[in-house]
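Step 1: inspect the first sequence and its tokens.
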Amino acid sequence: MPCEKEAARGVARTVTSRRFRYLIVFVVVAVVLGSVLLWRPSDFGQPVKATFDGERAYRDVLAQMEFGPRITGTEGNREAADYIAEQLRQAGWSVEFQDLMYRGAQVRNVIGRANTGKGSIIILGAHYDTRRWADQDPAHPRDPVPGANDGTSGVAVLLELARALNLRQVRHEIWLAFFDAEDDGGIDGWDWIVGSTYMAQSLTVQPEAMILVDMVGDADQQIYFDGNSDRTLHPTSSHKYDMR
């Protein structure tokens, strides 16, 4: 509805372009390029510098918000999946849809692949669906969550990474996974992380690593080390995990 879309646009614009630009630089350099996609210039000659455009990534946030709430099984959700797939194709990535039914709803993961067959597999993921109820909001507990941060921000980072990444410098096969049905846990008997669980159970290969890029567009952004992650990936660990 128009009023809901206008409210969603207002929430999206609270993620300011400047904050998002600084955030993108941090996430890509510190988390992705620094932790996973390590390379040696001597292997490829003079490296070609890719340009990660924070303004363009912010436009991906706004584009997703225009679809309204991206609740699993709705038109807005399907439009978001189609948008993600089209952006990946335009960037030269192959695209696969991974469909399943869950509690009567159509669930669709979107997976982009590049450097197929080149080294071990690294997966970077985010979810694109939004929670159907804002049940943590005491004033509006039955309103849908707009998802400017929880959903769109991680998707925008991965889409811009797909455009900017210099794949000649990456010695791995790269998957960008966009998960559906992740955020409705505890509502009407739904579980959490449905899409990513399905993808993990459907894998026929063993990835080298997976990094989740989620909720990285907060107005007061703070990124913590996940207590459930592999401790060898923590920078204070005595074990240095090298994926070169």
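Step 2: inspect the second sequence and its tokens, then contrast the two.
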Amino acid sequence: MKKFLPYILILIIITGFLTISKPANAQDACTVQSAVFNPSGEQSDNWYKDKTKQSVQVIVKTENCQNKTLELSIREADSCVGWCDNTIPEINRKSMQMGNNNTFILNLKAGETKCDAGFGFDCNYYIEISGDADFVSDGEPEGNLLYECDAVAGYIGCLEDWIVGPISFGSSIQDASRQNVVNLPAGGTTSKSTDTTYQPLARLPGLQESYDTAKECALGDYLNTIIKIIIGLCIVLAVFMIFIGGLEYMSNEIISNKEHGKERIRNAILGLLLALSAYTILNTINPALLNVCLKLDTVKIAIEGEVGILGKTAVIDGKTITACKEDDMVSMTLFGHSGVRVHKEIKANLERVNARWLAIPEAKRYKVNTVEGYVCKPVTNKPGYWSAHAFGLAIDINAATNPYGSTLKTDMMSPPSYPNYPFANVFALEGWGWGGNWSKIKDAMHFSKYPLAEQGNGKLN
């Protein structure tokens, strides 16, 4: 009986811990009770205007989600199939650290991302929650927001991005009042977030409630605390092993077992002394040796303006197109400019684009000063990638006033052509993607037939 006494005592201790600890169950799981728009449902025909964007709130109420992380996305209930998707890049998997809260409100300015001008409502948005809880608001009460684009019938014109504003948290739905819609600026972009605070999801003893990562040696302060916590754990484990060794020594009459218990105690004490002496010696020699300070260099990431096509051949609309193949290029007149070289397979399509432009009243027509088509060139700093221009599948319009950059700069959305006759629509209606709609970078001069990456429909004619 004495032989099994240590194991019985260990089993009793473990059972005690399990009994005291509250078991996780479905009732304690983080769940989303509701995710709604304010306002919600169907809006009037003239509710949305590009120049005076409407303020919108996303209000999310949860249960048992304190100290959890939720990811918020807004999707457009797209009816198209194939190459298109319903992801809103401006609000895609936006991380929400719940802290001690169960409710949050995200303040927004409505846009037209992924909307489709046509029958029914152009825009039909819903909310998707992921992370520590899953929820989709599509079809739920107040879970959809429907309205028309600010576009003329027959034109796509759904080009405006959503604008993301501040987030407010509350412990209940009353704390985060749905009446306080934040008035964000109607145009342009919001200021970049300056919050550099790191808040642990579960606070360990000795850790601060939050760490300012912009502070010098912020990571070092965090690691210094972790080192002390590890030493504390060593002490706890050593005491536990001494306790087990003592039980083994007292509960056995066999000499060899007693020696094993004594050896366990000696090893535990030795490990404890090793951990404490290492800390004490370093602290005595120079306390600075225990203060870790890691200074990490800032890394700047340059985003390429043009996505490009991998390899010198591409299959478009069932046909193999080869980069820099002069024999496949033809000249045409486009927007009043002769000698524009393009791939022969898209000439007829571009003639229809040109006809749409000519059909606009001359006083309202966007003035095209420069046109660039086929150019045999690779993509800069991307070995193996070739520009869509090298395949004759891209057109650049007025490069001087529609530059490539991190923010959209274009005169294509200015009078007299805009808003009634947006120039980008003469291309969009024939299946061309526009660089002004790209999410990570803007290249407003660039129109491309290449699918997916450059947002063209991949149809040659």
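Step 3: confirm your contrast with the notes below.
Helices lie at 5-20, 218-250, 255-285, 347-359, 423-428. DSSP finds five helices and 24 strands in the chain.
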